[in-house]
Amino acid sequence: MSSHPDMTITPELLLHGYSVGIFPMAERQDDPELFWVDPRRRGILPLDGFHISRSLARRMRRADYQATIDADFPGVVLACADRHETWINATIFDLYRQLNAMGRAHSLEIRDDDGLIGAVFGVMIGAAFFGESMVSPRRDGSKIALAHLVDHLNRAGFQLFDTQFITPHLTRLGAIEISRADYRRRLEQALQKEGRFLETPLETDPYSVIQRNTHTS
Predict the structure, then answer these.
(1) How far is C-alpha 101 from the geometric centre of its chain's CA atoms?
(2) What is the pTM of this model?
(3) Residues 93 and 107 sit within 8 Å (Cβ to Cβ)
(4) How many domains does the chain have?
(5) Apex CA 133: angle with CA 128 and CA 139, to 5°?
């Protein structure tokens, strides 16, 4: 990983950073400084390779939840930041809120009658979606959110789902790690297209999401 010195970051500069393959982070929530990150190895979630396990499919088939887009974007970002260690400081939170107002950052929430089950948010440019963070207040919450998000990105014409880094959790769902050069090649291709994130209705039926996914096992 390499980092670049902080400068005054505007929403426009933030989008430019994503478009050339870098993204901002803070060391911790109370640190006002930001730095640009350019990982040597990049995590992506292939949109044709999301893995729904039998247990996750069973959980989704209970159909006891609602999936929404941007129902509470600030609340999702705050929930993602509400942990012992986080890279989301006040500056980053404000920048993402501005990007949401511009239609460039979105959240996908999973709720039931008792509240938030899971959520994920990220930034979009062209046909690339840059996943920033996810939260799972309840068991399998973030997995359900990712299943609905991957389905939505596929139906909306996206080509790249960037997870930035890779974790065992993401690996079990189908994420892979690629080189910086490979990532930038895929990013360049995705930026030449235009995803239809808000123009495409969100699929709220879990059975349809599972059926469209060919990697159920």
Answers:
(1) 17
(2) 0.91
(3) no
(4) 1
(5) 120
